[in-house]
Amino acid sequence: MHYRRKCDLFGKPWVLPSMWILLWHLPRSDASSSVTQSPVFKTAALGQTVSLSCTASKGVDDDLSWYLQKPGQPPKLLFYKISSRESDTPSHFSSSGSEPEFTLTINGVQAADAGDYYCMGVYRGPVFTQ
Predict the structure, then answer these.
(1) What are the residue boundaries of the Ig-like domain, all occurrences included (predicted)?
(2) For residue range 10-50, what is the model confidence (pLDDT) as tens digits?
């Protein structure tokens, strides 16, 4: 399932967060585990603060990551272990939360921030990504 989020910057449609849900189940996985992201679409003007939410039903503890994917490029890791920042993650990005609610915040949105955002939670056994 793929939902595109539209971000209107400078009056032009930019893609900001989209959601992909891919589920891999191992033979003994807990079928009730899930990761969901909201809202589906996000529109922002330059300089605004944008918050993206990710809800992990159970079992992710602190093993949650955020990624940004731009057209024609592979996903780029922004944060791991909830709030551990990759060295090239812009300083106006932050990540916080604890199971089950996690948030990626972009303070002062810039045109370069447009893209598809994903959260990924690692569970005992199966991996759920969004």
Answers:
(1) 27-119
(2) 444 444 333 333 323 223 344 556 777 777 778 889 999 99
Domain that includes residue 44, residue range = 2-129
Task: Identify the CATH number of the domain in which residue 44 sits.
Answer: 2.60.40.10
As beta bridge partners, residue 97 has 102
Read off the pLDDT band of 127 (50, 70, 90): low
Q: What is the pTM of this model?
A: 0.68
Q: What gap in Å lies between CA 48 and CA 96, rounded to an integer?
A: 18
**Token pair for residue 111?**
């045109």
CA gap 128, 56 in Å, rounded: 9
Cα distances (angstroms) measured from residue 65 to each of 56, 84, 88, 97: 12, 9, 15, 11
Helix and strand counts by DSSP (H, E) for the chain: 0, 12
